[in-house]
Each structure stands twice: as C-alpha cells, then as structure tokens.
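Amino acid chain:
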Amino acid sequence: MKTTTAPHSNNRENAQLQTPTDLDRKGVSAISGELRKLLADVFALYTKTKNFHWHMSGPHFRDYHLLLDEHSDQIFAMTDDIAERARKIGGLTLHSISDISRHQRLSDNNEDFVPPKAMLAELSDDNQQLTKFMRATHEVCDQYKDVATASMLENWIDQTERRTWFLSEIVGKGDPEI
C-alpha cells in the first residue's frame, strides 16, 4: 500500500503536518478543500441557529427555544469531526473566523428582529442547502474512494434531513401563532 502526504499551500506547514495516507494527493486536496467549505458552513449554521435560539420570541417561545438549542448542539458536534477528518487524511482545515467567512456558502442573518416563522423557515432552507453541500462532498469522496469520510457524511446528511423535516413541519403547517 502506497503512503503519500497531502500537498499544502504552505510548504513550511507541509513538512510539520505530514500525515500518512493511502489516498492520492489530488484526492486529499479535493476532499480537504470540500471539508473546509463544509466546516465553514456548519459553523455559519451553528451561529445562526444559536442567534435565533437567543432571539426567539412569541407564543411558542419555549418549544422553539429548546428545539433550536437541540439543533445547535447537534450542528456543533459535527465541527470537530469534520476538522479532524481533514487532518487525518493530511489536509488542512480552518484557522480563524475570517477563514470561516472566506469559505462559507450559507448566508448570515444580522437582523435585530426576525419573526419566529421567518427564523424557522430560514433554518429549514439552510439545512436543506447544507444537505446539498454534503451530498456534493460525498461525490468527491466517492471519486477518490474515501469511504471513511463518505460514511461520516451519510450520518450527517440523515441528521440534517431530520432538522429540515422538523423545521419544515412547523413552518409548513401555517400556524397563525408563529
């Protein structure tokens, strides 16, 4: 079995952060690049979910507040696994908040007030978009035969689809109180 190390844009780090892997160099670069974007999106979704959790109001406050807290815990739990997976295969991951900002594809929401129904609809849409990003990352993993990352993605896709389902059920029922 041939062992290679992933190329990095910074040769200084490459020598210090070499990780043995049987994945080919192009694969490590492609997969870790996708994981970097995915991690940025997960951090963006986590922050937005916590924002909406903190700023929830209305007659269903308690239920929605607790739901979003549960969702944010689940989303945050993915972050370390994503970053460590990139490192395990010899890639680099995010370094800072500005790095997150450069790589994220999901939009932020900085409004002072967002009605509860709009919050939940936006989070439903964002979770749906995250699922699409994960499926695209899975395709890259399949291309380079990275079954371990693909397996992790399959679990996260299921979790993300569940969050989308819960949120869309609340929003889609037309409850006049939300």
